[in-house]
Amino acid sequence: MLVSATHEMTVANDGMIETFTRTREISRAEVIREICHHLAPYQNGDQPIVGDTVIAKDLTIDSLAIMDMVMELEDRFDVSIPMSVIAEIHTVNELADTILDLSARG
Amino acid sequence: MGLFDRHAGLLEAYRDVRTTGYDPFQIRMERVLSPTEAIINGKKTLLVGTNNYFGLTFDPSCMDAAIEAIRAEGTGTTGSRIANGSYSEHVALEKEIAAFYGKKHCMVFTTGYQANLGVISTLAGPDDFLLIDADSHASIYDACKMTQAEVVRFKHNDPGSLEARLRRLGDKPGNRVVVLEGIYSMLGDSAPLRAFVDVCKKHGAYVLVDEAHSLGALGEHGRGLCESTGVIDDCHFIVGTFSKTLGAIGGYCVSDDPDFDILRVTVRAYMFTASLPPSIVASVRQALRVVQARPELRTQLWANVATLYDGLKARGFTLGPEHGPVVGVHLPDRMTAIGFWRAMLDAGIYVNVAVPPATPNGVSLLRCSLCAVHTREQLEHMVEVMTGIGRQFGVLPAQPELRVAGAR
């Protein structure tokens, strides 16, 4: 597995097919933006969702929906987060760091 | 913080549930009359929520076998099989279930829950990987809490989602154990087992399939989804229960693995609980014979599924994705589901109500389970009653829609 999300591109060149893989770093801001996008439906009133938001406590999301959201994020960033690790995650920042860490480890 | 404070949210939800006057989680069957009828609140009630798929709880041959066993061997074993020893009948039952599947080994457990809990938590150890369907039964989730393996969920009934997770494991050492169910208990949908098996083969993963709701219902001989999809030989472990189609209680796991019996001294849910009493073992052995001798029960079950599913669908209800011995009726929210459930009980029909967090994707459901011995009249009556309540609750349009003559 590569260091981060990979984008495979196929380019036709003078009748030759050349396939190469481009590697792009995932930024922390990008991961947080994606998490906040998934959490938006569970926002509690006007309270903004930020890095320190405690997912299970500050929002209206239940534990099953958290696990389902994690599956979406897993596929978006091509990582798998074990259930025991999910149980230790509290804030948006912690979730983002877990994804970045797993992504870097490949 | 008090001991029960952490349950504050649940207590509140439970209070909501009870505002209807009945508590759906503490319903009392004052007297059970047959596989399909009981007295509830002093009234004869049609049972369409008991998982009694073949109606064998009152099969005379199964009842006689149980009574004879009590007379011959007493009411209970008073201990576990590793401490108190096995009765000949435990061993005979295991041989018969193994033969039923054409597998070499079988272990019998005191409940189906314990079979999943014990086998799944023990099979995958430290450095192994357990991959489970997101909609797995509580017994599978609880096994995951006990295991030392790394647990990852994949999207419900999605072989591509499983494959992505197996691929991500790359060449990490450790066994991969994939846990599936034949028919899922809330919506009655079955797994695309052949596609899952292909993915597992490609990635060298073991397959464990729980046939709790599909034993008897699926396959030419009633072995379950593993038989109807032709993959019995590719399923390394098949788990099931005696408490549904076989009309008693207990669980089992079969396998061809030559070292399977080591589980008898490693699975704590087998070692440290009392074994099944002789009466249960006897009725289960007889029920397994009935399942094999009377395939017409399976035909009747699916005819009844069609009557209820197609009847409700034609009236405009939103149902689970396919015909199944469980028919899940979607309702818009928890309180509608509970009110609907209560109205049905008042009308003399018992089904299960399933609300979050026990349901996938936070849906609220009426969960109906069919029985081979329901009559067509009983089920047509149920469709009428539910249609009336559906209109009253605004779940269906208030006025009956014009229907084409001859359409159901």
Task: Tell me about this structure.
The complex is a heterodimer of chains A (106) and B (408). Chain A is built from 5 helices and 2 strands, in the order E-E-H-H-H-H-H. Chain A has helices spanning 28-39, 55-58, 63-77, 83-86, 92-105, and strands spanning 6-13, 16-23. In chain A, strands 1-2 form a two-stranded antiparallel ribbon. In chain A, strand 1 and strand 2 form a beta hairpin. In chain A, helix 1 crosses helix 5 (92-105). The longest helix of chain A has 15 residues, at 63-77. With 408 residues, chain B is an alpha/beta fold. Chain B has 2 domains: 18-47 and 295-392, Aspartate Aminotransferase, domain 1 (Alpha-Beta Complex); 59-293, Type I PLP-dependent aspartate aminotransferase-like (Major domain) (Aspartate Aminotransferase, domain 2). Chain B has helices at residues 8-18, 60-73, 81-84, 88-101, 112-123, 138-146, 159-168, 193-202, 225-228, 268-271, 278-293, 296-314, 334-346, 376-392, and strands spanning 31-34, 37-40, 43-47, 105-109, 129-133, 150-154, 176-181, 206-210, 237-241, 251-255, 326-331, 349-350, 352-354, 364-369. Chain B has a 7-stranded mixed sheet, with helices on both faces. The mean pLDDT of chain B is 94. The A-B interface holds A 1, 62-65, 67-68, 71, 74-75, 78-84, 106 and B 134, 144, 150-155, 161, 164-165, 168-170, 356-357, 360-362.
Largest sheet of chain A: 2 strands, antiparallel
Any idea how many domains of chain A? 1
**Can you tell me the overall shape of chain B?**
globular
- The termini of chain A sit apart by 5 Å
Q: Helical residue percent of chain A?
A: 40-55%
Runs of chain A in which pLDDT lies below 50 for 5 or more consecutive residues are 1-23
Domain count of chain B: the total is 2
Helix and strand sequence of chain A: EEHHHHH
Put simply, the count of helices of chain A is 5
Question: What is the CATH class designation of chain A?
Answer: Mainly Alpha
Strand order of the largest sheet of chain A: 1-2
CATH class category label of the largest domain in chain B: Alpha Beta
